[in-house]
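Example record

One chain of 236 residues, shown exactly as stored in the release files.
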Amino acid sequence: MEPVIRSTNEIFDGARARLVTLEDNPPTCTMTFSHIKPGETSSHHIHAWEHEVYIIQGSGTLICDGKEYPVKAGDAMFIPPNVDHYTLNNGGQGDIHRIEINPLIAAQSGGAPNDGGQGTGVPPVIRNHTELDRSQGHVLLGSKDGAPNYVMLHNDPMAPGAVSHADTGGHTHEWEHVVYMLEGTATLVCGGKDYTVTAGDSILVPPNEHHQWKNESQSPVVRVTYNPIRSEAAEH
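Predicted structure tokens for this chain:
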């Protein structure tokens, strides 16, 4: 099975780009890229599923059940289910660019109406990738944070010439990857074929497909990856 690759720039409609959708048959989650303009907010709603959000650019305030939490570029946010929430762009740094991961039920149910409600009061988890102890791994959000469906990884930057799993020529596992390219240009080798991916691209790597990443460019490659929660016990 071939990977699903989409460019944010090619499908962005001025507000969002639906990068991984139900039509792609993702096993675990969908992915959406969105903008929040200065002074505006994301949808204000409450629903039975969680969000995992990564802020690519900009800063503002996440409001959960009436409490305010400052957020900025490089932050990963876990917003628990049944929490009233929205993000306000009041950071004075231009548009907020972000990617959002939702479990399949969010799209299958048609989404949540744009209104709030009484939440549980469970606080969000907010963690910046600069806080990671890279010697201990690159998991930004996982089960220890209450995430029930998937983990968020901020992959170690790939230097020019770097190759993942070079000793084995890649690897295969029973779960998928959902990847967003933050910086650089890379080659994804999947199922024996080479695919060029660049900053702003999303990639759904199917389960049970042999794959490997290569940086054949002259600049570092930086990615955010989402894996099903059962992958936590394995080496990422």
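Notes: Helices lie at 8-11, 104-108.
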